[in-house]
Amino acid sequence: MRARPLVLAATGLALTALLTACGSGTTSTTTTTPAAGSTANAVGDTADVSFAQLMIPHHQQAVAMADLALKYGTSAEVKKLAAQIEKAQGPEIAQMSGWLQAWGAPLTMPSSTSGDGMAGMDMGGASADGMMSTKDMDALSMARGADFDRMWLQMMIAHHQGAITMANQVLATTKNADVTQLANAIVTGQTAEIDTMKKLLAG
Asked: Of the candidates 168, 158, 170, 202, which has an alpha carbon nearest to the alpha carbon of residue 188?
């Protein structure tokens, strides 16, 4: 009869070990689920989020400027370039918006920090990122003829230079393959467009 308590004790220990093992398996499954999405990375995540939050309105302004060129531009080359910018940046806006949704981040940076530039990056204000002021956009929308074309080219060059700076900054920190691919595309594509615009101004 003395063997019975020992059997029960052994059984209890076995059940405890089994439950512990099950619990460990559940925890392991839970912790690996978020990592299944390769879009979010623990390293450089804050800078990736800030990059998308700032580049979306930057692209939106470029599209707005392109719309003005398609409406008021007189040069066929300017109109062609504006259409090219719209075609490239529209899908990129959608792509970055998708990232932010997947990351559980707001589409816009909090107002308390949006003017300070990209988190972890030295943006240095509106002039550094190439964004046009409301006054700049109003002046552009009122210009016509050759004056419009010249002003648009000058503004878009500065705008592109700001985007390239932002892209190069995130390339220095990101570990995300998708962010890297988009940032490289921005640097390559917009550098080529700047070259085109400078030639148009010189001509």
From this structure: 168
Query: What pTM did the predictor assign?
Result: 0.73
So what CATH class is 44-202?
A: mainly alpha
Q: CA–CA separation, 120 vs 38, rounded Å?
A: 22
CB half-sphere exposure, 89, CA atoms < 13 A: 28
Q: What is the pLDDT of residues 166-191, one digit of tens each?
A: 999 999 999 999 999 999 999 999 99
Shortest CA distance to 196 belongs to which of 70, 78, 25, 53?
A: 78
Domain ranges within the chain, ordered by starting residue? 44-202
Q: What is the mean pLDDT of residues 5-21?
A: 38
Contact 76, 67 (CB under 8 A): no
Beta carbons of 121 and 47 less than 8 angstroms apart: yes
What is the Cα–Cα distance from 146 to 129, expressed in whole angstroms? Answer: 26
DSSP string, 84-137: HHHHHHHHHHHHHHHHHHHHT--SS--HHHHTT-STTS---SHHHHTPPPHHHH
Pair of tokens at residue 87: 């075609």
d(CA 187, CA 69): 22
